Amino acid sequence: MEIKVKAVIQSISGVTETSTGGKWLTFRAKTVEEYSQVIEVKIYKKKEYAEHADKFVQYNKVGDTVDLELKIQSSLHEESGRMFTNLNLWKCTKLEVTAAPLPTPPPVAASNDDDSPPF
């Protein structure tokens, strides 16, 4: 199952290398919607694609607004009967956020409170 969501990155963990040469990391992002939520997303790349985990950290920073395409993966732990669900990153696209123009301050009215000359 896949979902798409617009979010703002809140935190990024360090990249961890596995014994097989793969790399993984997690990051948290706050969704941009009426009832926003903080989600934690996992990135795992096997050895052949391990540099992609490093590039995620290089090109994405806390505060960036991104479009995320996520895969939902659930698995049942047989012994405990508990279900575990992960949000795995499929694709991340950084969005260009343009700052709103600053409002023009109102003109300052001349004050005639004192009797000093205007020059």
Rg (C-alpha, Å):
24 Å
- Form type: elongated
Strand content range: over 45%
By CATH's scheme, which homologous superfamily applies?
Nucleic acid-binding proteins
| Annotated CATH architecture | Beta Barrel
The count of helical stretches stands at: 1
Mean pLDDT: 87
| The top level CATH class name | Mainly Beta
The main sheet comes to: 6 strands, antiparallel
- The total of beta strands comes to 6
Helix content: under 10%
Which oligomeric form is depicted? single chain
> First CA to last CA: what distance?
74 Å
Overall number of domains:
1
List segments where confidence is low: pLDDT < 50 over at least 5 consecutive residues: none
Find the structural class using helix and strand composition.
mainly beta
Q: Helix-strand pattern, N to C?
A: EEEEHEE
Features:
single chain, mainly beta, OB fold (Dihydrolipoamide Acetyltransferase, E2P), six-stranded antiparallel β-sheet, 6 strands, 8% helix
